[in-house]
Amino acid sequence: MADKKAPSDTITFLGTGGARIMVATQILASGGMWLNLGGTEILVDPGPGCIVQSTKRKLRADRLSAIILSHRHLDHTGDVNVMTEAMTQGGFKPRGRLFTPADALENEPVIFSYLKNYLEGIELLKEGKSYAIGGVSLATPVRHIHPVETYGLLFKTEKHTFSYIADTRYFDGLLKSYGGELLIINVVFSEPRPDIDHLSVPDAKRLITELKPKAAILTHFGMPMWRARPWEIAQRLTEETGVRVVSARDGMRFDLAQLEG
Ligand SMILES: [Zn+2]
Question: How far apart are the CA of 91 and the centre of ligand 1, in A?
Fold first, then answer.
């Protein structure tokens, strides 16, 4: 991979599936996103299969500086234990921090207690806070509307600013909280489902239209979204919003350098 070259900012989509049925069938992989931001490597939302998807792409967990959980749901945390072991070489080389909402550590914690000793630390995500990971700044501007404590992530690197809008019901606070050249949006539904706290395509369109990034990436597809052909939806949104909209593919590596100039 590009680790040894001049630092760039890349995002590898280990999986693009979301929600229960997609994760159970693995029609699309799950596993989260692997960020390499100027050489600082960060794993976001290690869902089931993360260890398989990352090792098969020769991504080295023992180079990670942090694992971030947007929230405790299984499709975002299923592999957090094995990834913590991999990051710390089975505990022989303590390393890295875990960033997580507090409720993921409360009753039924998502991480085994023995693994906490392998970490350099645990940072609790809270609304309105920011954190530093190497040269990268991370903010959790707003608590999402989702059945468990959930935060999206706003990253600032030396060269780029981008947002990951994790699972949530749409609310206008999202518009005040996120921005940057790139929006990554978890779009579980093609059509609005007001009874369920997830974003749909019309919500994504509103976010893209209002926030005007240089590009947007749709990911975390539930079965209805997959059946609706996300690549065609992305093409339509590109035409309707004037913003380049991409539907993520399993294994896709996105280099933020392509947004420069
Ligand atoms: Zn969720």
Answer: 29
CATH of the domain at 42: 3.60.15.10
C-alpha 82 – ligand 1 centre gap (Å): 20
* Tally of domains within the chain: 1
Spell out the residues 6+ positions from residue 73 whose beta carbon is closer than 8 angstroms to its own.
Answer: 148, 167
Q: How many CB atoms lie within 10 A of CB 194?
A: 8
Domain span at residue 15 reads 2-253
Averaged pLDDT of the chain: 96
- Per-residue pLDDT, 34: 98
Digit-coded pLDDT (tens) for 102-158: 999 998 999 999 999 999 999 999 999 999 999 999 999 999 999 999 999 999 999
167 CA to centre of ligand 1 in angstroms? 5
In-domain check, residue 261: no
Question: How far, in Å, is the centroid of ligand 1 from the Cα of 73?
Answer: 5
Ligand 1 center to residue 164 CA distance, Å? 14
Tell me the CA–centroid distance for residue 89 and ligand 1, in Å: 29
Q: Ligand 1 centre from 15 Cα, in Å?
A: 15
